[in-house]
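Here we describe the complex-level prediction in full. Unlike the single-chain runs in Section 2.1, the two entities below were treated as one system.
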Amino acid sequence: MAVPRTASDLREIVAFRIGNQEFCLDIRSVREIRSWTPTTVLPHAPPYVMGVINLRGAVVPIINLAERLALGALQPDTRHVIIIAVIETQIAGLLVDAVSDILTVAPTAVQATPRVGSEVTQAFVRGVIAMEQRMLRLIDLSAVIPGVGDRDL
Amino acid sequence: MDHADIRGTFFIECEDLMEALNDGLDRIDDSWDTGADPETINAVFRAVHSIKGGAGAFKLDTLVRFAHQFETTLDALRAGRIMPEPALLHLFHRAADQLSDLLQAARTGAAVEADNSAALVRELAAAAGDEDATSDADAEDFGFVPMALTLDLDMDAAPLPEGNRRYAITFSPLRGLYSCGNDPCVLFRVLADLGQLEVRLDRSRLPDFDALDWQESWLSWELTLETDEPEHQIDEVFEFVEGLCTLEIRLLSDTPSPTDPGNPTAPDPGAPSWDPPAEDSTPPSSGTLSAAVPTASRDNEKSSPPRATVRVELDRVDRLINIVGELVINQAMLSQCVQDEGVPPRSPIRTRLDDFKSLAREIQESVMAIRAQAIKPLFQRMSRIAREAADIAGKQIRLVTEGETTEVDKTVIERLADPLTHMIRNAVDHGIESPEKRQAAGKFETGTIILSAEHRSGRVLIEVRDDGGGINRPRVLDIAKSKGLVPEDAQLADEEIDSLLFLPGFSTSAVVSDLSGRGVGMDVVKSAIQALGGRIAIASEPGKGTTFSISLPLTLAVLDGMVVDVAGHTMVVPVPAIIETLRPRPQDVHSLGAGEQVVAIRGSFIPIVDCGAIFGYRSPVRRYDSTVLLLVETGRQKLCALVVDGIHDQRQVVIKGLENGYGRIPGIAAATILGDGRIALIIDPEEAVALGSGDPSLNPEV
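The structure predicted for the assembly as a whole is:
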């Protein structure tokens, strides 16, 4: 979801952890947070697509965000959570280690992603937010969720 | 409601009106030789009139002009000045088609070919025996045309000579007129537009104040109108209040004008007529009323009593269907939980749960029924297709439709339009012979195509039956051989030859005509039907005709599925696709080439496709001892054996699309939710087989 840079209002973000890195999403694109449930594996799916789950009747694909961000595959168990995110009309679940916080930030707090070598980082991280001693990486949902980015082309 | 809304409503109403129009024309078609029923003609007239009226309100001038001429010609038919001959009826059908096109164009804002319209207007005018009707039509002020929604049975069709005439109008509203929100002043104003109007109030009936029932209608008016407009213009003013007043229109300075017997006007001007509750109502007035009421009711009967309906947005219905689907799944999960908890089968909770189950099923079925629609509009479209196709092919065709009220899922109806169009064109083009040939064969020159629909054992059966020459099997076989579709020395049974028609790239017509044979053949029809979960069959008798039968599921929202196990994954295979299931004996399985294997079933060798392998769950199995083979038929007329590891169950499953969440997966048709709440993927047998045989177009890596 494109975050309007011009908005003067404060925004709320959901911060979560994958491994030892912290990421975040605009709270407006988060529909709910659920505990892990086993997925139905989809044939010929890319490795980061873990399968689909039944979310009250909707078929929702689950993305292993660690795998998608090339942080090494996360072996899911019951301690992990799924963030159900909505982008445009598409719903997807993101498997993460844990949700840590809900924070309020000013839009100006979002800094451009520092240039680092990894293309994956450039593709999936929209920007970074400095918060006390932490760095929150703002996820670009449309790049992470399969289908949406392709459809835009 | 803003303007766009009202406009939208108008077009929706027009759909109904077009339906009534086509219906009426069909009925006149059926009975023209015995004399068309005047009520039917009236119904047709009214439909056109209402469309014209609405179109006028939205300033759709092209539409109004066309409808006006159509109406005029229909009026001539109604007045008995012209006879409903086949040629005229054909013209009417074409006019109705054109009207429908114009409506469509007006709705979408697209341009229409004016020539076509103009030509038809001229033909209609000529048919009405009214050479200068077009110029009349142009001269008339269309802006005036009211939204005519009520009946106007009594227009005096014969145009009166020019010149001013004086009419005496006695107008006595009944109380119902006021309660419907009508205002006599408005009527008088409209009348005043027609010419010189004098209005005199007759309040002689008004009782003393003490005795006054304020809700009763006590007033009546004597009007004198001097106008050069024909009398039916005056009738039209009172169109909306018909039955709500006693009305008498009398031509002054002349003998009383001839009025139709059904005209609800009181013959005696001296006897003011009153509401029946008024106890001293005079005989003429009660006669008037009773004459008016049956007219209306007779009319309703004719246009098959409209059932009360509600227009609902499709989205809402779909949401409801989804939720009910959830309810059913939830119920299944609950049952499973209860069972897992070890609750004894006869315990009250299990009994209640069974009740819940049947209720949930019932709700589901009722909700599905909301999406179901009568197949009639589709059939009406087909009769147009047949008509146009017959015109091009120079054949005489009668399309008879049966079972129009059969209800089918809306989506099925929508997706049936193309294949059915193709089949009808095929029947006209290839099925029915030319009139000469038919005559030579001792048949009626007019060929008959019967399009029928019926419910049969939980499915919908649609048949296209023609009384043509039947399939020319030697020729079909020759063509198939020349195109290399079958080996030169093939010996095929009649049924096998017939089914050659479904092979891709088959077209029997020696000349590629305008109608069919545009490179799309019956194979396209077949795959369209199969995509709907249906089957198509063909039966033909030389010299007698050909029948195509389509059997379709009632709805696309649920599916009869076989729940199977594939390499530890639970999957669903649509039952209609499965011909049989079997456990192969080791000696029946033969290797063919590198890695390919076939199974011998009753003398034929059928390729084996391992579902586990094509979906990447495992490497292909080599031993089939513990597996089950599902024998499926694919669109290419080939049998194929899908390998699964076991069959769990057979049940109705609710279909959930995958496209919105993830995108298409080759070999997978959709998903469903099982009793345990897990999602199971529904296998598309056709694609699965194609995947197994290495069809590059379905390669998931591409």
